[in-house]
Design a protein that fits this description.
The chain has one domain (26-166): Glutaredoxin (3-Layer(aba) Sandwich). The protein is 39% helix and 22% strand. It has helices spanning 2-18, 58-74, 97-104, 117-121, 149-166, and strands at 27-30, 35-37, 47-53, 81-87, 109-112, 129-133, 139-144. It is an alpha/beta fold. A seven-stranded mixed β-sheet has the order 2-1-5-4-3-6-7, with helices on one face.
């Protein structure tokens, strides 16, 4: 009887730990000024890719343009990747984000990290950087983009390969 009770207890602990969420309890503002929980940006179908960037750097814009092209080609495959742009522009330059996103036609969610809180949470010092998370918020991929368009395609395919290996 004791073994059965212990086995049931161990099984229930395993199930609770398996459902653990790694997403921090952190509020962020989207591009429309709404306060949302970071968990709201979770991809239910697969992977969430946070792209940290700044409007003042042409390399960042080029990187996102290339990522958008590569992502658009991949979009129809089985394992979707949800991209969320995280602008680390401060109070002075944050007004540039919406026009740049609209002009380029990027239809991804945008988080405004004006105080750098989210960047500090994930140890982002200099953008552009990518961090990919699974559904539970566990980090599965991290990359520092250094060469704009060239790196975007390479690192995106690397992320796709990693996802395919883990599935």
């Amino acid at each position: 009887m004791k073994k059965l009770v212990f086995l049931l207890f161990a099984l229930s602990v395993t199930m609770v730990c398996g459902a653990q969420s790694y997403w921090p309890e952190q509020s962020v503002k989207d591009m429309k000024g709404r306060t949302r929980n970071l968990k709201d940006f979770t991809s239910e179908k697969g992977t969430t890719l946070f792209v940290f960037w700044k409007t003042c750097c042409p390399n960042n814009i080029t990187m996102i343009e290339e990522l958008y092209e590569v992502w658009s080609e991949y979009e129809n495959e089985e394992k979707p990747i949800t991209v969320v742009l995280v602008s680390v522009d401060d109070q002075r330059t944050a007004s540039r984000v919406k026009p740049i996103v609209s002009t380029n036609g990027w239809d991804w969610e945008v988080i405004m990290d004006k105080n750098g809180d989210l960047a500090r949470t994930y140890n982002i010092i200099i953008p552009p950087q990518w961090i990919a998370f699974d559904r539970t918020g566990k980090e599965i991929f991290r990359s520092k983009i250094t060469n704009g368009s060239l790196d975007s395609g390479i690192f995106f395919r690397e992320l796709v390969d990693k996802i395919n290996k883990n599935s």
